[in-house]
Design a protein that fits this description.
- The longest helix has 53 residues.
- The chain is mostly helical.
- α2 packs across α3, α2 packs across α4 and α5 packs antiparallel against α7.
- The chain folds into two domains: 68 residues, no CATH class; 67 residues, no CATH class.
- The chain binds zinc ion.
- The site of zinc ion has 9 residues, from α1.
Length: 177
């Protein structure tokens, strides 16, 4: 049991004092993790940590110790920025990823617009090639199913043979994007 056995808690060991039965550090700083208290002591000071823990209800002290240990470790690793360095770096990552997400969403919108415009055009192109090969625009055995539904498209195709070259140009433009 920490604080009640032969070996003092990590805090009392470092502070070279007797570890009392009601030692406020003992539940959170076991003797087998000396570095945990060493950093907290270096950054916050043992008496400040003692006071902070005494001011808290017992059920909140574990979380308080965890956050102090995290902050102290970060401050030891990065004496200038401490855990603010980690927070700032993560905020930059979040901003960068939000930008990437916005770009990706914009690309999705563009691709969907291109698809909704170019899929019927390609279909029409196939129909017209078929028309030129066998002279029958309605026999398209190797064509995939039409989307949107084919009647309107066929209707449109019959009246747009003259637009063939401009369709080819627009497909060329899409494929360059
Ligand atoms: Zn102790």
């Amino acid at each position: 049991m920490p604080g009640s056995g032969m070996s003092p808690c990590a805090a009392c060991k470092l502070l070279r004092r007797r570890c009392a039965k009601d030692c406020v550090f003992a539940p959170y700083f076991p003797p087998d993790e000396p570095q945990k208290f060493a950093n907290v002591h270096k950054v916050f000071g043992a008496s400040n940590v003692n006071k902070m823990l005494q001011d808290l209800p017992v059920e909140a002290r574990g979380d308080a110790v965890s956050s102090m240990v995290y902050e102290a470790d970060a401050r030891v690793r990065d004496p200038v920025y401490g855990c603010v360095g980690a927070i700032s770096s993560l905020q930059q990552q979040v901003a960068h990823l939000q930008t990437q997400l916005a770009v990706a969403n914009a690309e999705i919108v563009c691709i969907r617009m291109h698809q909704s415009q170019s899929v019927p055009n390609q279909q029409q192109h196939q129909h017209q090639q078929q028309h030129m090969e066998d002279g029958n625009p309605l026999i398209t055995s190797n064509s995939p199913p039409l989307t949107p539904s084919s009647p309107n498209l066929n209707q449109h195709m019959k009246s747009s043979v003259g637009g063939y070259e401009s369709l080819e140009i627009s497909e060329h433009l899409w494929s360059q994007n």
